[in-house]
Every structure is written in C-alpha cells, then in structure tokens.
Amino acid sequence: MTAGAPAAPVARAAERVARLTGTLSIGVAMLGLAALSALFGAAIVMRLAGVAAPGVDDIASILLAAVFAFAMAGAEGRGEHLVVDILVRRLRGRASRLWGGGVRAVTLGCVVYLASGLWSMWVSVMATNQMMLGALAIPRALPVGLILAGVAAFALVLAARLVESLAGRPPEPQEPGHVA
Questions:
Q1: Are the CB atoms for 68 and 48 separated by under 8 Å?
Q2: What Cα–Cα distance (Å) separates residue 157 from each residue in 2, 78, 101, 160?
Q3: Judging by beta carbons within 10 Å of its beta carbon (0-12, 13-18, 19+), is residue 131 exposed, middle or buried?
C-alpha cells in the first residue's frame, strides 16, 4: 500500500462532488440563459409593437448575474475552466500539487468572502422585506438569493477541487494544443 492510497477515496469523493455540482450548475445556467434569451426576444417584439416592457432590465440583470455565477461553478466542476498554468506546468509531483492547492485556496478564500457578504445582504433583505427599485415589485431577496446560490455552488466546487488536489489526485491531463 502506498502512502497516497488512503487519500484516494477522499480524492474520488471530492471529484464526484465537484462534477455533480458542476453538472447541476451548468443546467441552472443553461435554463437561466434560455430565460434571458426569451426575455430579450419578448422585449424586442414588445418594443417594436409599441408596448412598454417594464422591469425587463431589472429581471435581465438578475438573470445575467446568476447565470454567470452558476456558469463559473459549472466550468470549474466539469474541468472545463481556463487554466493559466505557466509556472505549475514546470513543477512536478508534490510541488505542482501544493502550488495548485495554494492557488485554489486563495481563490476559495475570495469566493467565500464574497459569499459571506452576499449571505449578510440576503439575511438583511429577508429581515426587512426590501423591494428592488424599479418598475416591478421584486423582493430584493430573490436576486440576492439567486446570485448567492451560484456563488455558493462555485465555492463548493472550489472546496471539492482543493480537497481533491491536497488528497494527492494528479492534475488533469492537458489536451494536445492546450494553451497555458
């Protein structure tokens, strides 16, 4: 039994969590993008027909931010993210794993900080029942909650990838033509 063998189940479990969260996040992002496209199409048709479309910009901004957050989680979770690994490619074995883990840890720290701010904002708007400023009466908790859910999914994927990296799972193989 090698020294890294006990960590293998942990790394596999973390990889499954990251992939599942990524797949679900991509699904949510795709639904949000489809809704955003339908919203823009309807707004264009309505404006061409001379019909006012109140609240379109409010709803579009909510959907766009949520789609972006869920798409980040999906890309990282499915291993389809852009990687800048000029230094990491030069490192081998443990050094590569530690450097990659450090980068993920710093990124995770930033995302958790963002999520904690969104959480505080969400709790505040839930407690005060605030509404968005705009043509439609949209509870502010809805957009903050949607964006928070996407950022939380991204944080979960990053945490799973960090555990996977620190548990000794080798980095993903790069495809031919990979640009670092």
A1: no
A2: 27, 9, 13, 5
A3: middle
The single-letter code of the amino acid at 1 is M
Dihedral angle computed from the Cα positions of residues 149, 154, 158 and 163, in that order, rounded to the nearest 10 degrees: 40
Q: Contact 158/74 with Cβ under 8 angstroms? A: no
> How many other β-carbons are positioned within 10 Å of the β-carbon of residue 6?
11
Q: What is the CA radius of gyration of the chain?
A: 20
Look over the chain and give the mean of its residue pLDDT values, rounded to a whole number.
81
26 contacts 70 by C-beta, under 8 angstroms: yes
Q: How confident is the model at residue 180 (pLDDT cuts 50, 70, 90)?
A: very low
Count helices and strands in the chain by DSSP H and E runs: 4, 0
Token readout for 171 is 């980095």
Decide: 171 and 90 in contact? Cβ < 8 Å. Answer: no
pLDDT-derived band at 113, boundaries 50, 70, 90: very high
